[in-house]
Amino acid sequence: ILLSQGLIDPQEFEFLLHFPVEATNVSAVSFLSPQTWGGIKTISTMEKFSGLDKDVESSPKRWRKIVESSCPEDEKLPQDWKNKSTLQKLIILRALRPDRLTYAVRKFVEESMGTKYVSTRLEFEKLFEESSPSTSMFFILSPGVDPLRDVEKLGLKLGFSIDRGTLHNVSLGQGQEEVAERVLRHASEQGHWVILQNVHLVARWLPSLDDLLETAAVDCHASYRVFITAEPVQNPEQHVIPRGILENAIKITNEPPSGMNPSLHDALNNFSQDTLDMCSRGQEFNSMLFSLCFFHACVTERRKFGPQGWNHNYPFSTADLTISAHVLYNYLEANSKSMQVPWADLHYLFGEIMYGGHITDVWDRRLCKTYLQEFMNPNMFGAELFLCPGFLAPPFLDYTGYHVYIDENLPTENPMVYGLHLNADLGCLTVTSENLFRSLCDLQPQDPSRRDEATESTEEKVMDIIEDILEKLPEEYNVVEMMAKTTERSPYILVCFQECERMNLLLAEIRKSLNELDAGLKGELTISSSMETLQSALFNDFVPDSWARLAFPSTKTLAQWLNDLMSSCHELDSWTQDFVLPAVVWLSGFFNPQSFLTAVLQSIARKTQWPLDKMTLTVDVTKKVKEDFGHPPREGAYIHGLFMEGARWDVESGIISEAFLRDLTPSMPVLYVRALPAEEQEVRNTYECPVYRTKQRGSTYVWSFHLRTKEPPAKWVVAGVALLLSL
How far apart are CA 584 and CA 596, in angstroms? Predict the structure, then answer.
């Protein structure tokens, strides 16, 4: 709307959406990370932002105030920058504080369009007034929310209920299609209400439903209404609801209140005073049941922190909690004579079976068990167990007393309630902002006539990108020639050959697809769907799928990804010169980092004649950076390019320490990796830290390293501490 009115600059809007960050490894000011500084440098290349980087360098105190503010979107920018337009301020904030961008965009919409566009609290009764026999109400379901409660409540008020036979509730599934058709025809004649639940389960029948909804609304009773529910899908390929149904309906979604306070109350609401009174060991049962509720709230709410919370999403439900409560009761009653609490049994049942039954990832299972060990242990009976910082496990209370205790004592919502660092919130909000702008990019029209003359057309921009990439793209490696150059076939050299072969496949695909698209844009070839997909990805600065399938996992933009690709080629170039292991190996640059780490094991096993299956890798974190090393070690390897998430490495003390606020992923010094017999591995006072390719964790798992710690390892387990090869 603002673009069509000429109120915002198309180039600035384009820049805000795509935000092409200049890759840099250093920052000119101490309070900005290299990535943030890269963003500032990129912004400074635009005419209206010229000198921004110099201003940040010369007035660090003023800019630091913005960076460290809890609500930077409400702060005035320093000096003349405060006179910038709201959109220009958004561009600067996208570099300085991406975690606050959703709030800043909200403020931008409110100032530009009005409050009604950001206020989403609507009463169901008001929404119902907009419905009609031909305009149904379509509920997009959210976990933990029952939208039909509102329908039934309003129905009772207006004289529609199941008891009176004026409200019909059909839960769709196998064989229910005919029932639904009969009910709809009857209701349209009699003026009843119909609820059709889970229509996504009957995809084949939905075109018939679309037609039926249209015909049933013709010459029907004025009171006739239809309410439909369906689950949302993850991507457009899974869409099954016909367009007609969606276009003719009022779409409604309602998310549950999130946070520890409502979740803990909800968990406790599954029980009553009768539950607390039923066990002969009342004090122990009540304390442990409260801890179980806190555990349940923790594991369900932790999902909002993405991969740092859980590697995968698990469908933990109230059934897990209620069944666990019954198991707790049975076990305490069974041990009532000995008055012992079978801690190990309960931890196993809850952590491996009830909740653990959902968990498929070994590191998530460790997290689940650690939570249970922290929340349910003998200390809880001595009024000395903190369930989270500032929240002591409650004394022996009645049911209402526990609810009051939560409201009076539970700290305000923050990641520390779940054992995570405050940075986890920033990371979570940053990902939300990135997803918002990625969606906005997808929604942009790519028709040149819709853009200002000053912006390049899609085709012109894409052709420039193609030319730029092809110019920089290295030549493929002659692996046959390399093999002839050396007769040695050590584990390291074999890894080098494998990496060159993988790189050749990727380079060939990039070159082939770009040449095809270039020919297509010049009119020499017919544009295919795969060419269109590639063109869209290049325009939006995304890594094309056909390239990503042959490459290493990455969450970076196309520009950053290409920089990494060039760096990988540079590493391979120097390695293939003489096949001597580089002084410090860039582990992140491998297609298969596991193969290199396995090669470390194999080379030392061959040298020492130790059995490979009885060996393990050990890691010493040095105090040095890559440039401090001139040659590789005599055995093992020096590696670099790793980052820590959830904590930081204290170089002076040589231990894991609390992260600094807003430094989400501090880089690690060079690590010295070597192999030794498994029984010689020092595991006391260490935290077994998983290593992942990207922030998405999960399936990008590479290895695990034992890192020294003075704190109990459980602290870092619940903090979701991990090493990442790429940001």
Answer: 13
Cα separation of 261 and 424, whole Å? 19
Closest CA to 195 of 157, 154, 232, 234: 154
Cα Rg, the chain, nearest whole Å? 30
Name the DSSP letter for residue 256: P
Cα 169 to chain centroid distance, Å, stands at 36
CA distance 82 to 76: 6
Tokens of 275: 């539950």
pLDDT confidence of residue 455: 41
Alpha helices in 59-147 (DSSP H): 60-68, 86-96, 101-113, 124-129
Taking residues 335-357, report their average pLDDT. 87
pLDDT at 155: 92
Q: Is residue 386 within 8 Å of residue 393, measured between CB atoms?
A: yes
Torsion of CA 536, 541, 542, 547, to 10 degrees: 90
**Spatial CA neighbour of 35 closest among 626, 693, 664:** 664
Q: What angle do CA 468, 472, 475 make, to 5 degrees?
A: 135
pLDDT for 717 equals 96
**Dihedral sign (CA 517, 521, 524, 530):** positive
Label residue 121 by pLDDT band (50, 70, 90).
low
Query: For residues 189 and 215, what is the distance between their CA atoms, to the nearest angstrom?
Result: 12
**Cβ atoms within 10 Å of 180's Cβ, excluding its own:** 22
Partners of 227 in the β-ladder:
137, 195
The structure's pTM equals: 0.81
Tokens (6 digits) for 653: 């003390």
Element (H, E) at 702: strand 701-708
Say if strands 671-677 and 637-640 run parallel, antiparallel, or are unpaired: antiparallel
Q: Encoding tokens for residue 412?
A: 């305000």
- CB–CB of 227/136 below 8 Å? yes
Report phi then psi at 560, rounded to 5: -70, -40
The predicted-structure confidence for 610-663, as pLDDT tens digits, reads as follows 888 889 999 999 999 989 998 999 899 999 999 999 999 999 999 999 998 888
- 8 A C-beta contact, residue 249 and residue 270: no
Question: Is the model's pLDDT at 448 over the cut of 60?
Answer: no
Q: In this structure, what token pair is assigned to residue 518?
A: 């270039």
Say what the pLDDT of residue 551 is: 92
Q: Is the distance from CB of 552 to CB of 569 less than 8 angstroms?
A: no
Q: How far is CA 621 from CA 188, 611, 670, in A?
A: 73, 26, 6
Ramachandran area for residue 114 (φ above 0: left; ψ -120 to 50: alpha; else beta): left
Taking the C-alpha atoms of residue 461 and residue 37, their distance in angstroms, rounded to an integer, is: 26
What's the Cα-to-Cα distance from 508 to each of 123, 477, 503, 514, 588, rounded to whole Å?
57, 11, 8, 10, 21
Length of the chain as a residue count: 727
